[in-house]
Each structure stands twice: as structure tokens, then as C-alpha cells.
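How a chain folds remains the central question behind the approach discussed here. The record that follows shows the chain in one-letter code together with its fold in C-alpha cell form:
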Amino acid sequence: MKLRRIVGSISTLVKDKLSSSSPSSSSSRQIFTACSSSWQRDASSKLSEALPGNHIKWASLGSVRNSRFASGYTPLQPKPLDSIMDLARAKTKSPEELTSIWDDYHLGRGHIGITMKAQLYRLLEQRASECRYFVIPLWRGNGYITMFAQVEAPHMIFTGLEDYKARGTQAAPYLTTTFYTELSETKDLVFIRGDVVFTSKLTDEEAKWIMETAQSFYLNDSRYKLLERFNKHTHDFEFKDVLQALDMPVL
């Protein structure tokens, strides 16, 4: 069965004890400056360090929860928010205006912009510090592919399970996500930018769904129990429970 193959694949994932799109011409959107993502171009090589090199059984996954992100791994360094957005002008906008501008600015192939309330981000950050790994099925056609998520706030990195099986530590990220908190105190907003590394692997719609779904497993108490089980009580984790939580059939 496909589910059994997925479970077998996930069981090899984690090493024991891991030591620009142009802005709109609208004047309201000119708070944004020219943006490049040079930090993202290094994402493929960085993920090869972040993902495990040796494999252990799925049941041993919980042992890594207090380890570093990866041995010798330096978290991705995104461009600061003030290199993307004119923060002085942003301070004159309402949270609703900023949300709309941020979303519209990132429309375009390979870029996703969403926002969340500061309180929700603090909850996500706290939970991610204890539970940094998860698997998310992405529905396609008559079945699904499985994504492996790894978190080190303010970053989330996603890669395909099948790609990891084929390439091991050379597997490249499909999607990188950065959370910007510079205006969290004054506007009660955290800006989230997603960059699709390989547009042949994910559409913008799929990338946005993955980002929002991953966040839901940290922010929804019922779903978080599954994520917590995956990281802390892996003997009790069942992948079919994730499928059911997302209203996907167990194949």
C-alpha cells in the first residue's frame, strides 16, 4: 500500500543527534524597494547540510528535538525587511493596508506573501523550538506527494520526501520561508515571505497551501498534538492521522 511505502520512507529521515519580482506601479506599493534573494540562491547547498546524512529509525526521531538545527549549519540569512520595504513609509499605513500591499507585491511566479498576527507567531516560534520536524502530504491528481518540513525560526525549509530518498544530503529545498517580525510591536503583524526554489517542483498555489498548512499544525491545538507526537512520541505517530486531519483519503 502507498501509505506503507510512505511510512517506510519517513523512517529514514532524521540523523541521530544532529551535532524579484517587481513592485506594482501603484503609489501605495512604492514602500517596497528593489529586492533580490541572493541568500536563497545558497539554499540548495545549505539544505544539504541541514538534512541528515545518516539515517535512523523513525522511532528515534524524538532524540533530535534538543539538538542544533544541524551540525555546522548556519541558518539562512535573508535580506532584512528594510531592504524590501520602506519601513518609514510602512509606519504610516494601517495593518490592513500593509497586509494587502504585502500580498499584492509578492504576486508572481515563485513568490508568496502572507501575514499573521504577532501573538500567533510567538506561539508558532515557541512550539517550533520544541518540535522542528514534520511531514505534510500534498494532494496531486489521484494521490499525494509527501513534503518534509524543518523549522529553525525565523525560517522554514521544505523538500520532497522522494527527492530526499533519491539524493540524500544533496536534496535541494523546494520552498524556503522567512518570518519578518520588525513591525510586530507597532502593527501587530508578522510578514511571511515564501520563495519557491524550483518552480518545476511547486506551483505558487501549492507553495502557499504548504506554508499555511504547516503553520496550522503549529497553531491549531488538535493538529499540534500530531506534530508533537511526531517529534516527541514517535512510536505512537501514525501518518494516516495526518491524512485524516487534512481530509485526505488513506490510500
Notes: The longest helix spans residues 204-219. DSSP finds eleven helices and six strands in the chain.
